[in-house]
Amino acid sequence: MKRWLSVLAVTAVLPLVTSACGQGGGSDAVPSNAQRVNVVASDWKWTLDKTVFKAGVPVDFHVQSAEGVHGFNVVGTKINVTVAEGKAPIDKVWTFTKPGTYTIRCSQYCGSGHDNMFVQFKVE
Ligand SMILES: [Cu+2]
Fold this sequence. Notes:
By secondary structure, the protein is an alpha+beta fold. It has one helix at 2-20; strands at 35-42, 45-48, 52-53, 59-65, 69-74, 80-84, 90-94, 100-106, 118-123. The chain has one domain: Cupredoxins -  blue copper proteins (Immunoglobulin-like). The chain is built from 1 helix and 9 strands; from the N terminus they run H-E-E-E-E-E-E-E-E-E. Copper (II) ion binds at residues 70, 106, 108-110, 114, 117.
């Protein structure tokens, strides 16, 4: 009986979870062990309150724009989401399995500083 219930739970819940994760890549659900980083977009930079993360542990990018409209894109992941001034922060979760240096770039043209709007962080 217990096994049957867990099979039912997986088949019923999984499609719901998957469909909720569609927009902008990455997951919107924040696991309790996530490494949270607050990301603020402005003209024309990304400000992070943490730049070193552990590999294999989910990273919760808590992203908002303080100025303008920008595209939050983590190179090498599926995360690519628009953030706009005045809108609520967005959570995008990604687990990096490979240590290295990663880049956040702006994927949406936002003015004269757009091409220089990137920042790097580390996964160790
Ligand atoms: Cu831009």
